[in-house]
Design goal:
The mean pLDDT is 96. It is built from no helices and eleven strands. It is globular, with a radius of gyration of 13 Å. Strands 2, 4, 5, 6, 9, 10 and 11 form a seven-stranded mixed β-sheet that branches. It has a four-stranded antiparallel β-sheet with strand order 1-3-8-7, with no helix packed on it. The relative contact order is 0.32. A hairpin with a 5-residue loop joins strand 4 and strand 5. The chain is an all-beta fold and 119 residues long. 0% of the residues lie in helices and 50% in strands.
Amino acid sequence: QVQLEESGGGLVQSGGSLSLSCAASGRTISDYYMGWFRQAPGKNRDIVATISGNGKKIYYEGPVKGRFTISRDNAKNTVFLQMNDLKPEDTAVYYCAEGDVYGGSWGSWGRGTQVTVSS
């Protein structure tokens, strides 16, 4: 089973930027969809963005469109989330997950990285 480890979270002021990374180990992730999710205190875990194995199919949830960019480097077995123009409502724990080859069945998860945006 693949292991996922997120990094890059932190505290940033509103309007600032952060870049998250998700390093996979144990096997290659190149065939699989990867996704970023987030969970704010007292709320459900929500999808943020997903990317297909070859990087050609990308999805963004509405609130992050135009501000966040998901990408992947299969040679490095790593997925990225560039977050710009951050807002206080983006504050959450951000999780990386591996899906199947069709974009569902998110079976492997990282432990998450905290992102806090101050106003």
